[in-house]
Write a structure and sequence with these properties.
- This protein is mainly α.
- It contains nine helices and no strands.
- Helix 4 packs antiparallel against helix 5 and helix 4 runs parallel beside helix 6.
- Helices cover 58% and strands 0% of the residues.
C-alpha cells in the first residue's frame, strides 16, 4: 500500500508554488535529465514550459535530440514544444540537425511530422539534409576502416600461423637428419617346393 501511495504521489501534479506560479523551466530540465518522464509529464501538465532552455539557451528538445532520446523528444512534442529553432551557441544547430548528426531516423521522422524545417541552415550554412549526408559518410568511413583493420589482422594471424607451421616442419626435418640411419631390412628366406615329378625321375 505504501508503494502504491508513493507511485500516486510521484505521478500527481506538483503542488502549486506560493503565489500560484507555474513550475519552472529548471524543474522540468532536471526531471528530463533524470529520465523521470512521469514527473516531467506532471510538470508540463502543471504549466512548465515545453520550450524550456538551459543556461546556454539550448531548448529541452534540442538537448533530447543531441542525446538521441526519442522518449523525451516525444513527450516534449506532445506538449507543443517548437520543433525548430536554432541554438544560440555553438554551430547554431536545430533539433533536426542534432537528430540528423546522430543518424536517429526515428527522431528525424518525428521532428518532420511536428513541423521541423528541413532547409533551416545552422551557422555554418549547412542544412539538416547535408548534416545527415555527412554523418552517413562518416559512418561509412568508420565501417570501411574497421573492415580494413579486421582484414589486416586476419592476414597477420594467417601469416603467423603459416610461419609457425613452417618452423615445425623444419624442426622435424632436422630431427630426422640427425637420427642414425636404420639398417635395411633383411630379406625374408624364400622356400622352393620340389615338384613330385622330379623325384620320380630320379
Amino acid at each position: 500500500l505504501r508503494r502504491v501511495n508513493e507511485l500516486h504521489a510521484r505521478l500527481a501534479p506538483p503542488p502549486p508554488t506560493p503565489g500560484g506560479s507555474k513550475p519552472s523551466a529548471a524543474e522540468l530540465l532536471l526531471a528530463l535529465g533524470a529520465k523521470d518522464l512521469p514527473k516531467a509529464g506532471a510538470l508540463l501538465a502543471a504549466g512548465a514550459p515545453a520550450d524550456a532552455t538551459d543556461a546556454d539557451g539550448r531548448s529541452a528538445l534540442l538537448l533530447a535530440c543531441e542525446a538521441g532520446d526519442a522518449d523525451v523528444a516525444e513527450l516534449l512534442l506532445k506538449n507543443r514544444a517548437a520543433a525548430h529553432g536554432a541554438a544560440p551557441t555553438g554551430e547554431g544547430g536545430t533539433p533536426l540537425h542534432a537528430a540528423c548528426a546522430r543518424l536517429e531516423l526515428g527522431l528525424v521522422s518525428m521532428l518532420l511530422e511536428a513541423g521541423a524545417k528541413v532547409d533551416e541552415p545552422n551557422r555554418l550554412g549547412l542544412s539538416p539534409l547535408v548534416t545527415l549526408c555527412e554523418a552517413e559518410d562518416a559512418k561509412a568511413a568508420v565501417r570501411e576502416k574497421e573492415a580494413n583493420e579486421a582484414a589486416a589482422k586476419a592476414e597477420a594471424e594467417a601469416a603467423a600461423a603459416a610461419k609457425a607451421a613452417g618452423e615445425d616442419t623444419t624442426a622435424e626435418t632436422a630431427a630426422d637428419a640427425s637420427s642414425p640411419a636404420k639398417p635395411p631390412p633383411k630379406p625374408s628366406p624364400k622356400f622352393m617346393i620340389a615338384d613330385p615329378k622330379d623325384a620320380e625321375a630320379k
